[in-house]
Design brief:
2 domains, two-stranded antiparallel ribbon, 14 helices, Rossmann fold, four-stranded parallel β-sheet, 12 strands, alpha/beta
C-alpha cells in the first residue's frame, strides 16, 4: 500500500529564527495590560496581565540560572495543570532550557525511565508525593543534580536565589534557540508500555501556533475577549500547544487540575471556549442523557441532540436552515441547550 501525502500551505510565513519565548515577548509588546491568565482567588479569579506574567517568568528563569541550569539542559516537571505549570514552562524557555514534562500520575519506574532516557539534570515536583516517588529512584538517576519542590514556597525560594542574575543574561539565553532547536521532549503516558519520547522543535510550536491563530480566528478573537479553562494534562502535547496558542493570541487562560471541581470553575470563570478530548465530551453527553432519562425527559433530550447535529451540519455545509428546523432549534434552545451552556459558564461558543 503506497503512502499518501497531504499538504496545506502555511498561512503565516515560517520564521526559522523564532523560538517559543518570542510568543510571549511579542504578546507583551502588543498588549502588556491584557489579562493573559487568571488564578484562583477565594471564590473567584484574579487576573494576571501579560506584563505581570513575563515578570514572573523572568524572575523564575533567573532562579533556574542561579541553580546551575545551562542552555540546552533538560529539566523534568511533574505537576498538575496549574498556572505554575505554564509559568515554569516559559521560565525554562527564557533560561534556554528544554522541559521534559512528566504525567503527574507516573510511577517511580516511569519517572526513572523518562529522566534517564532524556538525560535530565534536574526535576521540579509539585507535591510531597511526587518528591517521594523521585526519591525512590534518585540513586538510579545520577545525572539529576537537583530536585526542586514546588510545595511550601519552593518557587519563591528559586526566585530569591536568582535576584543577582542580570536581565541581560536572561535575554541572551532566551535568544539562543532557533527554530530547529529542541523545545521540549514529550513522552507518552506509558499506559501500554514504556513511555516513548518525541522531540519537538521550537518551529513545531511557533509555526503551528501562528498558523492556528489564523485558522481558529473566530475562537481566539471572540468579541469581548476569548478565554478558556485548561484541565487536560499539560504534559500532553494537545494542552501544551493550546497553552502556547493562548499566549500568542492573547486568550485569557485559567487552570483547574481537579476535574471534580471543573463545573464550579467553569461557572465562575465563564470561558468562551472549551478544550477537551473526545472522551470528555462523550462523558458529558452520556451524563446529561442519563439525567434526562431519570427525569422522564429522555425523548426530549434525544430529539434536541438530533436537531442540534443536523442544524450544525447544515451550517457547516452552507445549506439553508428550513423554517421548521428553526422553530425546533429555538424550542430546544430554551428547554435543553441553554441549560447546558449555563452549566459551562454561559459564555461557551466553541469546543476544540
Amino acid at each position: 500500500m503506497s503512502a499518501v501525502q497531504f499538504e496545506v500551505p502555511a498561512v503565516v510565513p515560517a520564521d526559522p529564527q523564532a523560538n517559543v519565548s518570542d510568543l510571549l515577548v511579542e504578546r507583551v509588546k502588543a498588549t502588556p495590560s491584557l489579562a493573559l491568565f487568571a488564578v484562583p482567588d477565594g471564590e473567584g479569579w484574579r487576573d494576571v496581565t501579560a506584563a505581570e506574567f513575563q515578570r514572573d517568568v523572568i524572575a523564575l528563569a533567573k532562579g533556574f540560572v542561579a541553580g546551575g541550569i545551562q542552555p540546552g539542559d533538560k529539566v523534568g516537571l511533574i505537576a498538575r495543570t496549574t498556572y505554575d505549570w505554564s509559568l515554569i514552562d516559559f521560565a525554562l524557555f527564557f533560561a534556554g532550557a528544554v522541559m521534559v514534562p512528566i504525567y503527574e500520575t507516573s510511577s517511580a519506574s516511569q519517572i526513572n525511565w523518562i529522566l534517564t532516557d532524556s538525560g535530565a539534570v534536574a526535576v521540579i515536583a509539585e507535591s510531597a508525593d511526587h518528591v517521594a516517588r523521585i526519591d525512590e529512584i534518585r540513586a538510579e538517576v545520577p545525572l539529576v543534580r537537583d530536585v526542586w519542590s514546588m510545595a511550601g514556597g519552593g518557587l519563591d525560594t528559586l526566585r530569591s536565589a536568582g535576584t543577582d542574575v542580570a536581565d541581560d543574561e536572561i535575554e541572551r539565553r532566551r535568544r539562543i534557540a532557533v527554530g530547529s532547536d529542541i523545545a521540549t521532549l514529550i513522552y507518552t503516558s506509558g499506559s501500554t508500555g514504556r513511555p516513548k519520547g518525541c522531540v519537538l522543535t521550537h518551529s513545531n510550536f511557533v509555526e503551528l501556533t501562528r498558523n492556528s491563530a489564523k485558522a481558529l480566528a473566530d475562537v481566539v478573537n471572540t468579541p469581548g475577549g476569548a478565554s478558556t479553562v485548561l484541565f487536560l494534562p499539560l504534559a500532553h502535547v494537545f494542552a501544551r500547544f493550546i497553552a502556547a496558542l493562548n499566549v500568542h493570541a492573547g486568550v485569557k487562560t485559567g487552570h483547574e487540575p481537579d476535574t471534580t471541581k471543573l463545573l464550579a470553575a467553569l461557572g465562575s470563570f465563564k470561558p468562551t471556549y472549551l478544550l477537551a478530548v473526545p472522551r470528555v465530551f462523550e462523558k458529558v453527553y452520556n451524563s446529561a442523557e442519563q439525567k434526562a432519562e431519570a427525569g422522564g425527559k429522555g425523548k426530549i433530550f434525544r430529539a434536541a441532540a438530533a436537531t442540534a447535529v443536523e442544524h450544525s451540519r447544515r451550517l457547516q455545509d452552507g445549506e439553508k436552515i428550513p423554517f421548521l428546523m428553526k422553530i425546533k432549534f429555538g424550542l430546544f434552545d430554551k428547554l435543553v441547550y441553554s441549560k447546558l451552556r449555563t452549566a459551562m459558564g454561559g459564555n461557551v461558543k466553541y469546543a476544540v
